Amino acid sequence: MSRVIMGIESSCDETGVGLVRLHDDGAVELLADEVASSVDQHARFGGVVPEVASRAHLEAMVPTAERAFATAGLKLSDVDAIAVTAGPGLAGALLVGVSAAKAYAAALDVPLYGVNHLAGHIAVDTLQHGPLPSPVLALLVSGGHTQLLRVDDIASRITELGSTVDDAAGEAYDKVARVLDLPYPGGPPIDKAAKRGNGSAIAFPRGMTGPRDAKFDFSFSGLKTAVARWVENAERAGNGISVDDVAASFQEAVADVLTAKAIRAAREQGIGTLVISGGVAANSRLSELAAERCAEAGIELRVPRPRLCTDNGAMIAALGAHVVAAGHSAAPLDFSANPGLPVQTVSL
Asked: Which residues participate in Fe cation binding (predicted)?
């Protein structure tokens, strides 16, 4: 008999509630994916304010859940299990989601699974493209994380091959957008401006690509600083700057490093499929360059549609379904959120 899994996400500034159906053959079907974002409340600060995010989650949790059940045409009593983001993320924001999930699980008397936000970004691809091959390489790029991961089993075996040593790619986008007087969050406006610019106009550095650097680690702090210094110098010299060219050249540097390291990792690991996920996966140049380089290398590329790339409850429900299908034990109701939960810990 198929089972309905409810997923709750509240790790940062998106309140997400998703519903999926786990079929007897292991297939996972998306039934509803509702999100309430507090990004507009953070825009004037140029970044997420944890206290503001936590309050927004408190206000949005129940209405978002109600919309999800209305969309799916289901009742709370139809839920067979609940999955919630246990980490990583902002402590206060996580606690709102975990508390809500515990309340729902206790009221419905259904098992509760605390799962990893990062693994959820990978699992969400199965809602669009079906089961993941084993192994698969995942390039996770978001505002807070940039990682290369080997996934042998989405429910239990994830190995980190490389990570950022400073700024994540999405964080660099936000900071460069501020330098260019573009809106927050920086990803969409930089991507839009870059389409009008020349990505070869400025030779910005490619961090962590030297022979002595860790093969699969990333660094975007130097790139961010290089953009800021270039703009400062141009303005000091009285030269006008092309925001479009700066945006395009910055974006080209980011996409170049991300895709080059991903292809190298796939080849060295003998992996034939690359999944790109996380908010930055919606970037047009990243997906375009990844498609070109994967085609040249004979590697299959899977990128979820933009709606699934950003934080949402569907990804947590999808991961929860895989954890349930694998027969993992439910978490005790007294488990705590863990803001620093490592990606290797898929579920609690």
From this structure: 117, 121, 311
